[in-house]
Automatic annotation (TrEMBL), chains A, B:
<feature type="domain" description="Flavodoxin-like fold">
    <location>
        <begin position="1"/>
        <end position="214"/>
    </location>
</feature>
<dbReference type="GO" id="GO:0005829">
    <property type="term" value="C:cytosol"/>
</dbReference>
<keyword id="KW-0560">Oxidoreductase</keyword>
<dbReference type="InterPro" id="IPR051545">
    <property type="entry name" value="NAD(P)H_dehydrogenase_qn"/>
</dbReference>
<comment type="similarity">
    <text>Belongs to the NAD(P)H dehydrogenase (quinone) family.</text>
</comment>
<dbReference type="Pfam" id="PF02525">
    <property type="entry name" value="Flavodoxin_2"/>
</dbReference>
<dbReference type="InterPro" id="IPR029039">
    <property type="entry name" value="Flavoprotein-like_sf"/>
</dbReference>
<dbReference type="InterPro" id="IPR003680">
    <property type="entry name" value="Flavodoxin_fold"/>
</dbReference>
<dbReference type="GO" id="GO:0003955">
    <property type="term" value="F:NAD(P)H dehydrogenase (quinone) activity"/>
</dbReference>
<protein>
    <submittedName>
        <fullName>NAD(P)H dehydrogenase (Quinone)</fullName>
    </submittedName>
</protein>
Length: 258, 258
C-alpha cells in the first residue's frame, strides 16, 4: 500500500531520525510505497496566513475559513499546500511521527495540519442540516484511510499513566486522534509511544525497533480505535451531544469510544 | 499590575482583534500596564530549531533540550526569545488569547511556547532527586504569577460540553492549563471561552465584552484552578503518580484538581 510518513523533528541524527529511517526501510521491505514529508527539511511554512492563497489582495481583510474555502474551490492554494493534499489523497495509510513537546505536536506539524486541512478538504465538507452536521468524525475526504501516531516522550510511562501527573497519554492524544485524524475520516490506530527517550542504548533501541516493526507489519490489520461516527445515530443533531441512552451518565473523552 | 497579552490571530479586523482591543482598553482604564505580544504582527518565528542559539555551529548535531540549556545559561539565545522571557518576568498576569484551531492553540502560539520556554526557564528548573522532581507543576520560574486563556471557537457550547462530540472544553484545554501554564509555576484562572463565533452581532458583542470585562476586572481576585502541586506530597516521586489515598480509584485529567 501507499504510506505517507509526516515527520517533525529538527535533527536527522536523533532518535527520531533513526526511528524514521527504520520505519521507511521496514515498510519498503514489506513492499509498500513510502513518501516522507520531512517538515523541517522541507522548511515547511508553519504559520497559516493570507499568503496561503496565491491571490490574496494586499490590505484585504483575511478570514481564515472563508479565504481557505475560496482558494481550495478555485485552485488558488499555495503550491506547498496542494502537494501535501495530493500526498494525502495518494496515501492508504498516514503516519505522523513527532516528539511530544509541551504535551502536543511540535508547532511545525500543527501548522501542517492547519494549512493542509483546508476548508472543503479537512473541514467544511458535506451537508450541514438538521440530520447531518457535515461529513466529519468518521466521514470526510480521508475516509477509508488509516492513520497512526509515532510519538516520543522524555518522561516516564508512569508520568503518563491513568493517575500520572502529565495526564493519561490517551487523553493527551485525544485531540489529535479524534480531532485531527478521525475528524476528516481516518480510521485511527492505537499509537506507538516511546517513553524516557533520554535513556536509550543499543539494546533498548533494538527492542524498540522490534516493537515498532511489528506495528508497521500490522498496519493493514490492526483494529482501529472505535470512535463513534457522528452521523450514525449516537449523537443528537445539532447539539452533537451523545444520546442519553449511549454511555449513559458518563462524561469525558472516553465516551466517544464505543 | 503588569499584564502581558500574548495574542495569536492573523487578522486585526476580526472578532479576536476587537476583543484584544477591548481588553487592552479595559485593563489600561483600570490602571494596569499592558504589553502585547501580537505574534502575527511581530512575524514571530514559530519553528524551534538550531538558529534559536546565536552560536550554533553549522553541521553540528542539534539537541533541542541541550542546546536550549546551553544558550540560556550562556546568554546565547536569539534576541526574540530573550525579549519574550523578559516580558514574562515583568508580568504579574499573562493572558493568552487565540482562536481554537483543531482543538488546540494556533501553531504560531505553540511555537512561542516551545521557543520561549527554554531549558532553565520553562523546564529543567530546580533539583531533580528522590524527593523533588524539578521545580514544576506549581513551582518554577513563573510561580506567583497568574495566567488566563481567552479562547474563541466556531462550534457550539454543547459540542464542547461534558458529552459533546468535540470533548469537554476543560479537558481540551488541560494540556495548556496544566501542561503549559501550571508547569512553569503560573496560577491558572478559569478560561474565558466564546463559542459559535460565526453568529456575532452588535448586541451579542456588547454582552460578550461585558462578560470579558468582568473577568478582566477580577483578574487579581479570581480563584485559580486548584491543580495539585507536584512536590507537596500528593504524588509519589519519581513515579509521579497520585498517591493511592488521594482521589482514590479515580483516573484522568480531573484527578489533578483538588
Amino acid at each position: 500500500m501507499n504510506v505517507l510518513l509526516v515527520y517533525a523533528h529538527p535533527e536527522p541524527r536523533s532518535l527520531n531520525g533513526s526511528l524514521r529511517d527504520f520505519s521507511i526501510n521496514r515498510l519498503e521491505e514489506a513492499g509498500h510505497v513510502v513518501q516522507v514529508s520531512d517538515l523541517y527539511t522541507m522548511n515547511w511554512k508553519a504559520v497559516l496566513d493570507a499568503n496561503d492563497s496565491t491571490v490574496h489582495e494586499a490590505g484585504a481583510r483575511f478570514d481564515p475559513a472563508a479565504d481557505s474555502k475560496h482558494a481550495f474551490e478555485h485552485g488558488l492554494q499555495s503550491a506547498d499546500i496542494e502537494r501535501e493534499q495530493d500526498k494525502l489523497r495518494w496515501a492508504d495509510t498516514v503516519i505522523l511521527q513527532f516528539p511530544l513537546w509541551w504535551f502536543s505536536m511540535p508547532a511545525i506539524l500543527k501548522g501542517w495540519v492547519e494549512r493542509v486541512y483546508a476548508y472543503g478538504f479537512g473541514y467544511g465538507v458535506g451537508e450541514h442540516s438538521d440530520v447531518r452536521w457535515g461529513d466529519r468524525y468518521g466521514e470526510g475526504t480521508l475516509a477509508g484511510k488509516r492513520a497512526m501516531l509515532v510519538v516520543t516522550a522524555g518522561g516516564w510511562e508512569s508520568h503518563y499513566g491513568p493517575r500520572g501527573i502529565n495526564g493519561p497519554i490517551d487523553d493527551l492524544l485525544f485531540p489529535i486522534h479524534h480531532g485531527v485524524l478521525y475528524y476528516p475520516g481516518f480510521d485511527v490506530l492505537p499509537p506507538f509511544v516511546l517513553y524516557r527517550t533520554g535513556r536509550m542504548d543499543s539494546e533498548r533501541f533494538a527492542r524498540t525497533c522490534a516493537e515498532l516493526g511489528k506495528r508497521l507489519d500490522d498496519l493493514g490489520k490492526t483494529q482501529p480505535i472505535a470512535f463513534r461516527p457522528q452521523n450514525a445515530g449516537a449523537y443528537e443533531i445539532p447539539a452533537l451531544t451523545l444520546r442519553p441512552d449511549v454511555a449513559t451518565d458518563q462524561v469525558g473523552f472516553a465516551v466517544h469510544v464505543a
